[in-house]
User: Fold this.
Amino acid sequence: MKLTAIIEREGDGYVSLCPELDIASQGGSIEEARDNLREALELFFEAASPEEVKQRLHGEIFVTQVEVALG
Assistant:
């Protein structure tokens, strides 16, 4: 299953988020944050019931940028 991973610098590390399931993780590098998120997602799918997966899974996620005026 392909899911979205949004990774953002936070302090000295990185935070990763899967918006489809609202599951997050972190790591010291982009790769570590991504890998830790993958592990968190795999653990979720191992432990969650099909009903919980269905309830939490958001089908359509769009990641884009918006331009705003400053000042």
User: Anything to note?
Assistant: DSSP finds two helices and three strands in the chain. The chain has a mean pLDDT of 95.
